[in-house]
Amino acid sequence: MDDEVLKELQEQLRKNRLVQSAEDLQVGDIVYIEMDRNDGLILNDGYDTRLKYVVVAGSKSNEKEFGVVLINSDADYSDAPDWKAEQYPLLLSNYTNVLEHDSWIDCTDPKELTLRKMKAKGAEKMGHLTKVDLDNVMKIIKKSDFVNDHFKKVYRIEEYKK
């Protein structure tokens, strides 16, 4: 297969993964998106944006705004035991099509993303958490003292059932 055909196939696959509507997203979906300070990221080293994997944790009833949690490559931001308890490990062996190494879902600080922004930024749906991982992540978020009750209610986190 020549390089041009391969590039065309890769571009078609990327287009197929693009988030186009609320129907494209379910709780537990892994999405790849460019994020910035307006999304609540703390950016270092002169970066204005970062490409991040996020997991959809819920949506508002209008299904145009989504609550997401970040996937990080490290969980070493704090030594506080209560904080560390809410960093959920993702094993590379379960997500070889998405991750490059073992990673962590930060369940302490969910972010809000609109469907409009996801479409504008060319967000791509890359996969879905395993049932076990999804159930565990949602349990952590539901019980988290870091996540306020208003967020849990508005993004229907409390409605998630195993």
Distance between the termini: 44 Å
CATH fold field value: SH3 type barrels
* CATH architecture level-2 label: Roll
- The parts where pLDDT drops under 50 for at least 5 residues are none
Give me the secondary-structure topology:
Layout: H1 3-17, E1 29-36, E2 49-59, E3 65-72, H2 81-84, E4 87-90, E5 103-114, H3 115-120, E6 124-128, H4 131-143, H5 149-154
Antiparallel strand pairs: 1-2, 1-6, 2-3, 3-5, 4-5
Description:
With 162 residues, the chain is an alpha+beta fold. It has one domain: SH3 type barrels (Roll). It is built from 5 helices and 6 strands. The protein has a 6-stranded antiparallel sheet with strand order 4-5-3-2-1-6. Strand 2 and strand 3 form a beta hairpin. The longest helix is centred in the N-terminal third of the chain and has 15 residues. It is globular and about 55 Å long. 28% of the residues are buried. The mean pLDDT is 90.
Give a brief rundown of this model.
By secondary structure, the chain is an alpha+beta fold. It has helices at 3-17, 81-84, 115-120, 131-143, 149-154, and strands spanning 29-36, 49-59, 65-72, 87-90, 103-114, 124-128.
Short key terms for the protein model shown above:
162 residues, alpha+beta, SH3 type barrels, six-stranded antiparallel β-sheet
